[in-house]
Amino acid sequence: MLPHLVDVEHPGKRTDRYDNTVDDWSPGATTHAEVDAWLQQSTGAEDTDQRSAQIGEWLMVCNPIDTEGSPLTVHGTARVHWQGLTFEVIGPPGPAYTPTEHHHYEIRLKTVEG
Question: Per-residue pLDDT tens for 19-31?
Fold first, then answer.
């Protein structure tokens, strides 16, 4: 039911020149977790106001544990990588439960090209 293997990436943290803590997306600073998922595009649009951009919103349904067996953590600052595409997580993930346990996450994603 979850045929896609995706990579969930979380940024590291660093201090900028103004002494603020900011996200660090540089290689080696981020953490990754692979998870089985199902992705489906929900909307698509073109932004033609002064640029040529393709904008897509997707829904990702995934296991609450990663492929290593650890609980999956997803925040609004995370990125998801799948088949050469990079998605931004939109808002907090929605956990879905059976009567007895956490069953899966439903996570809204966004991609912008151009």
Answer: 999 999 999 999 9
